[in-house]
UniProtKB/TrEMBL annotation:
This is Glyoxalase. Residues 12-137 form the VOC domain. It comes from the Bacteria. Gene3D superfamilies: 2,3-Dihydroxybiphenyl 1,2-Dioxygenase, domain 1 (3.10.180.10). InterPro entries: Extradiol_RC_dioxygenase (IPR052537), Glyas_Bleomycin-R_OHBP_Dase (IPR029068), Glyas_Fos-R_dOase_dom (IPR004360), VOC_core (IPR037523).
Length: 181
């Protein structure tokens, strides 16, 4: 690889920032409904008319929300077009996953549950119409490996077998392969 072909190597997701409506709406949803502890706030240094709220989604990284007391909740689905985020997905335990639909519905939040083959998903919308997902893998990653390692190997097995999507069999065989290494 020549110098002109070198690339920047990212090492993980640092944070995600979304545009919200009011401070209280953001706190009620991200901390109240989803249990993400409120960490701190300060003015949006790029736009002092907005406030910048920081929440911990559980892994020590941050989800941040720009708020403005002059805005109201959008009350519509967020746009889905090139250049926009389709949804944000958060990892939850199997126990939380099983309880989440009832807890969200109790707050008046509509949910859609889906089996994705290698994981289960619950979809719903934040107060501004952005789609949010709670995801729970159907496998336990072996010590010393990462979720992506299991999924990469399961994908290779799926393709080699000509299957349409990753199934429990691909996951089990992928884990077995990784443990033999």
């Amino acid at each position: 690889m020549t110098r002109s072909e070198s690339r920047v190597q990212v090492q993980g997701l640092h944070h995600v920032t979304i545009v919200g409506s009011t401070r209280q709406s953001a706190i009620d949803f991200w901390e109240g409904a989803l249990g993400m502890p409120f960490v701190f706030e300060q003015p949006n240094l790029g736009n002092p008319a907005e406030n910048h709220l920081y929440f911990d989604p559980g892994d020590g990284r941050l989800l941040t929300v720009f708020t403005d007391e002059g805005r109201t909740d959008a009350g519509r689905d967020a746009p889905r077009e090139p250049g926009t985020v389709e949804h944000l997905a958060f990892t939850v335990s199997r126990a939380t996953f099983q309880l989440a639909p009832a807890r969200l519905r109790a707050r008046g939040i509509e949910v859609l549950e889906r089996d994705r083959g290698f994981m289960d998903s619950i979809y719903f919308r934040d107060p501004n119409g952005m789609k949010v997902e709670l995801a729970c893998y159907k496998f336990q990653t072996p010590e010393g490996w990462r979720d992506a390692d299991v999924l990469r190997r399961a994908f290779e097995l799926r393709v080699a077998r000509g299957d349409a999507n990753i199934t429990a069999e691909h996951l089990a065989d992928a884990i077995e392969d990784l443990l033999r290494r």
